[in-house]
Amino acid sequence: MTSPNAQSTPAATATSPIAVASSVSRHFGSVTALDNIDLSIGRGEFVSIVGPSGCGKSTLLEVFAGLQDHDSGTVTVDDRPLTGPRSRTAVIFQESATLPWRTVRDNVAFALEVRGVAKKERRARADELLETVGLSRFGDHYPTQLSGGMRQRVAIARCLSMEPDLILADEPFGALDEQTRLVMSHELLQIVDKLTCGVLFITHSIQESVLLSDRVMVMSARPGRFIDEVAVDLPRPRSEDVLASPEAVVLHERIWSSLREEAKKTMSVTR
Ligand SMILES: Nc1ncnc2c1ncn2[C@@H]1O[C@H](COP(=O)(O)OP(=O)(O)OP(=O)(O)O)[C@@H](O)[C@H]1O
């Protein structure tokens, strides 16, 4: 896979983080969704956020995507103040939309087409990406002929075709059944090792966060603040087997113990 960072702007340095939020707050009327958040995502770093329902995870992701305003603080991406959505930030949602009238290959090639890449090159690049996500046999299919998990893989391939320097994924496997979810996190794990861009990944699964991340941020119940930061220094490349290692069990336990009280607070408010 080509390195998206090879095309970094002159303002960027190899070592500066790709995305930084400093003292970011966001209110919706009387609701404080984000309270003085600081988070930086390194180039090539995979950062997960876990936190109780409604704590502000999606709001933070949308702020980084330039889709949501913030009331105070600053957000920079690629060393520039963020003013709105940008072409090299790829966003994947729980049920990412595909274009039903286009084949899988043409869905993946869409961003390349918009950028004016020649047809032959588009096709070759799309096929390469379909292979990366394990869909090489399905290039001529239409999205409606695929399962939910396969459609999410199309969305991931399409996102990679943008050669992003930042990927923001909001519970990308949240709508999938347990088995498909396991398969998808396995496949994402294969892709993650080839990525050179920063990733912010929101998940409700502690296992997923430990398996995929370099760092896990634990968010408090609303108003969202970070209450723990856990470095996941398990060796890469990883396989699911790593989750059974004593190191991974300790990490899982730590994240869960930080999260447990917060989850209880959320449940007592919503009961
Ligand atoms: N557009 C909006 N208008 C009003 N309130 C909002 C809006 N978006 C989010 N909120 C509120 O902000 C808080 C944080 O929401 P957010 O969706 O960021 O949480 P979350 O952690 O992603 O939740 P979940 O895990 O359930 O998806 C919630 O109380 C939510 O109701």
TrEMBL record:
Annotated signal peptide: none
UniProt keyword list: ATP-binding, Nucleotide-binding, Transport
Domain ABC transporter: 19-246
GO molecular function, one term: ATP binding
SUPFAM superfamilies per the UniProt record, alphabetical: P-loop containing nucleoside triphosphate hydrolases (SSF52540)
Highest rank taxon of the organism: Bacteria
Protein name: ABC transporter ATP-binding protein
